[in-house]
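Bumping my old thread because nobody answered last time. Still need a sequence for this structure:
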């Protein structure tokens, strides 16, 4: 029974956050709750602060996947993009990875422009205003 519950949580959670589209508020809430429930079930001794950070993880997922997919479509590695943009590789890894505290607005904007994601990023920022503000991310406009 417990294993079946865990598997159901996992399946629903993955279905809720796969892909790189921007989730609606309802989808964020549902997926966040599923993730929190799963973490509490799977990791009963995990500190509550990590479990409570699940909403940020859910919201960042689409952003990270969108950047990763766009970069991979160019056929370039993170190292190659970092060299072209003349930015530290770890800053690009932060955007595509889990180090949200390492994301810097100027590098984020350069990377967005390089990948042609300004409009999509602006949509994401508008849909995730609190998190974007916390990270110091702003809506972008295409350079003229």
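Sorry it took so long. Here it is:
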């Amino acid at each position: 029974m417990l294993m079946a519950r865990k598997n159901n949580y996992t399946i629903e959670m993955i279905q809720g956050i796969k892909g790189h589209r921007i989730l609606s508020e309802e989808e964020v809430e549902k997926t966040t709750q599923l993730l929190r429930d799963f973490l509490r079930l799977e990791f009963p001794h995990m500190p509550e602060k990590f479990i409570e950070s699940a909403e940020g993880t859910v919201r960042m997922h689409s952003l990270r996947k969108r950047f990763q997919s766009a970069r991979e479509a160019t056929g370039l590695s993170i190292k190659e993009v970092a060299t072209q943009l003349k930015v530290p590789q770890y800053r690009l890894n932060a955007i595509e990875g889990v180090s949200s505290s390492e994301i810097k607005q100027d590098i984020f904007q350069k990377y967005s422009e390089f990948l042609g994601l300004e409009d999509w990023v602006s949509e994401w920022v508008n849909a995730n205003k609190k998190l974007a503000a916390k990270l110091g991310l702003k809506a972008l406009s295409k350079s003229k």
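The radius of gyration is 16 Å. Let me know if any region looks off to you.
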